[in-house]
Amino acid sequence: MDLPHRWGVPAAVPVDLTPLLPQVRDDLSRGLALLNGVRLVLCLGSRAQITLLMGTPARILGATTTAAEGLAQVRRHRPALLLVSDRLEEGCGVDLVVQVKARHPEVRTLLVVSQEHRLARIRQALQAGCDGIVPESRLLHGSGLQALHSVLGGGLYLDRALVGAVLADQEPGGDAAEPLSARERQVLERVVHGLTNHEIARELMVSVDTVKTHVRNVLLKLRVRGRIQAVVIGLQLGLVDWPRPGGTR
């Protein structure tokens, strides 16, 4: 289903969003449950979106439409999650993610992109260690809920279309500094699926601390700073496969 211009395609395309209403209602209910009590800073280019999110059960510590004030709010409150859009009234959301991850790497970041063609900017967010990147055009198709679930649970989220575009737009990488062990590949495969550390621990029947150690080793061996970068490099080098739609691990 096509979506109108503000969701990433030409406004002239007629759409009927009615079939999506049951899914949107369900996603909204589950999303509100995920946000319950979460310490959150909003930095979005749309004041209407901020107004809507103000009604969530999250502990919204700050809400702004500019990158400079977004950084100030993060420095002041040290939230659990920064929800930011690439387009802001002043400044750039990607630049904000880069600054936040450099100064406060413990803050989880979820970036909503409306300009999916700006691959260089998306790669900047990846290299900075952004925890989740979701296209605005995919929010009504369940991606928003999946992104929240993964990022809040300590996992990552990167839309399949963005991964494909990033991989297609860059030169093949070199070999990893060190080969991954069989267990490290298993962990990376589950990271690709967006599983959190706790979910990976349950599947592999190991402790969460053990999973964290494996993830840290994967990052070191692939010479990357964040989990999303590890996914991109792992796919690029053929260490893991991208999950098929509707497929199982």
TrEMBL record:
<dbReference type="InterPro" id="IPR000792">
    <property type="entry name" value="Tscrpt_reg_LuxR_C"/>
</dbReference>
<keyword id="KW-0238">DNA-binding</keyword>
<dbReference type="Pfam" id="PF00196">
    <property type="entry name" value="GerE"/>
</dbReference>
<dbReference type="InterPro" id="IPR016032">
    <property type="entry name" value="Sig_transdc_resp-reg_C-effctor"/>
</dbReference>
<dbReference type="InterPro" id="IPR011006">
    <property type="entry name" value="CheY-like_superfamily"/>
</dbReference>
<keyword id="KW-0804">Transcription</keyword>
<feature type="domain" description="HTH luxR-type">
    <location>
        <begin position="173"/>
        <end position="238"/>
    </location>
</feature>
<protein>
    <submittedName>
        <fullName>Response regulator transcription factor</fullName>
    </submittedName>
</protein>
<keyword id="KW-0805">Transcription regulation</keyword>
